[in-house]
């Protein structure tokens, strides 16, 4: 019987500030992460990511998350998320200048970052089933901040023996290339919705 | 820490990496799962080849194929096959994957006392813990087919492991011990969470409740139920169980430990090994006479549509029918509005957990509501508004249990290859078995 897949993905758009250190931490983590790793190291990597995102969640501006338990959809969506990275679709083609002012109130000088996680999972594994239950969120609460928080809080339960492939990327790589308010209004970012609450 | 099986290469390999000013990111592949899929595809292809082979041999009268074609498939009890041929029946040499935080250092000699430390001496007649038999078991016989891989006993693979979820469950157990001790009633606890978490809850309760293990399955490299993780959890909490055995009152009520993952889906003829089982919950009369408990708290997962699955529902209904009080609780009831970390001191468990204390209903003040919410002698007067209201209001109800389809394989069984009248060659899914090698060589046979 062929392996059946599921996909989990989450993307958060956060203010890019020099103060929190989240961007520089995530970039360092990616640069320093080894070519090969155990499921243990993988879990620790995402555990740290998860903690950082949870701490930033109160300030998250936009976001989206997905869980699909259908093999064909899982594979095509995972490819889509991967291509989002490989084609540099969301990245700027030039610098926007380092962030200034109050990023939490918006404005021309505000800069933003996106953090994207996509996991291609094996359907029958307990972790996948557990995550599917976590993501069984009422439609009215899909975009609520507390739903993002709930999912993030339970992502640490995932065992990476259930994850066949994972993609993780941060836009920008250099904080002088942060996304602007205008960038986020482009059609290519329409899948990101304002986070409620 | 998560660990792979012994001698394992790191399975995650990076195949894409971008490090531009505009974007930084990477993609990794889990080589273990990729190779599993390749092998699954190969097995599928071999199955198709085998169909063609039968026709070819019939037409051409191939003598060479005779020995392999005289085999047949039959289902046998998975546990029986593991007891006869070893815990890794059909998958000798394959690895177990442990996810979670590995705890070092670990003295493998302590495995010798794992069973005694975990079971204690109380309520021995209620224990149903075949899982511990697997650790040092060495089979007396080998399958009829030499697959070229040797048996290695389970003890050489086992490690203590802890996960975030286990830490939460341990705190849940500690909280339960605290709130139950305030009630002037003997409350037996049935923990029906995934194995590692169920063990953790029992460890948290170990000072006040005697652990009774209802785990009649063995680990297997392809197991549907990750029983090795349950053992890894037991190894992690072994010092806690051992310490509690020395101080717990001899008449402590029981905490029954089972594994909710026993219900995981299994597709017949898949390459998984069906090590699922039905927990042997005691009869109501035994609970009353042996454990002297008339109040039962059923600990269920928080994210399930039905708190009591079909295999335990009849027992829970029987308890209620007999007049025992049966209540439920889930992880939703346990959280903390402030962080409070117990001092690690000399406690080896605390030094690794680093998770804050939990309260029933969020804090010390609201925790006092437990006595009202779980007054086993009286029904609730009004419906409380808590994150766990569904469990508070739950009562076991008799319901029609859907029978399995007539073609379904018996639970906890494995398809074996039998040659002649009763010689077991091996497990059908074993990719090293000659029944696969024969069919793969069919291209050289003319018809």
- Give me the secondary-structure category of chain B: alpha/beta
| Largest pleated sheet of chain B | 5 strands, parallel
Oligomeric state as shown: heterodimer
Structural class assignment of chain A = alpha+beta
Biggest interface between chains: A-B, 57 and 53 residues
**Overall pLDDT confidence of chain A:** 88
Helix content of chain A: 25-40%
Fraction in beta strands of chain A: 15-25%
**Number of structural units classed as domains of chain A:** 1
Tell the overall outline of chain B.
globular
The major sheet of chain A is characterized as: 5 strands, antiparallel
Number of helices of chain A: 6
Task: Return Rg of chain A in Å.
Answer: 16 Å
Number of helical stretches of at least 4 residues of chain B: 14
* Sheet with the most strands: spatial strand order of chain B: 7-8-6-9-10
Calculate the mean pLDDT score of chain B and round it.
81
- Order of helical and strand elements of chain B: EEHHEHEHEHEHEHEHEHEEHEHHHEEH
> What is the general shape of chain A?
globular
Written description of the protein model:
The complex is a heterodimer of chains A (197) and B (447). Chain A is α+β, with helices and mostly antiparallel strands. Chain A has one domain. Chain A contains six helices and six strands. Chain A has helices at residues 22-32, 39-56, 71-86, 126-134, 145-155, 181-185; strands at 5-15, 36-37, 62-68, 112-122, 163-171, 193-194. In chain A, strands 5-4-1-3-6 form a five-stranded antiparallel β-sheet, sandwiched between helices. In chain A, helix 2 (39-56) packs antiparallel against helix 5. The longest helix of chain A is centred in the N-terminal third of the chain and has 18 residues, at 39-56. The radius of gyration of chain A is 16 Å and the shape is globular. Chain B is an alpha/beta fold and 447 residues long. Chain B has a domain at 95-138 and 146-393. Chain B has helices at residues 31-60, 66-69, 78-85, 114-119, 164-182, 195-204, 227-247, 284-289, 313-321, 348-353, 364-367, 370-373, 389-393, 434-440, and strands spanning 12-19, 24-30, 71-77, 101-102, 161-162, 187-191, 210-213, 254-257, 295-300, 325-330, 334-335, 359-360, 413-419, 423-427. In chain B, a hairpin with a 3-residue loop joins strand 13 and strand 14 (423-427). In chain B, helix 5 (164-182) packs parallel to helix 6 (195-204) and helix 6 runs parallel beside helix 7. Residues 1-7, 40-69 and 431-447 of chain B have low confidence and may be disordered. The chains are: A alpha+beta (197), B alpha/beta (447). Strand 5 (163-171) of chain A pairs antiparallel with strand 2 of chain B, so a sheet runs across the interface.
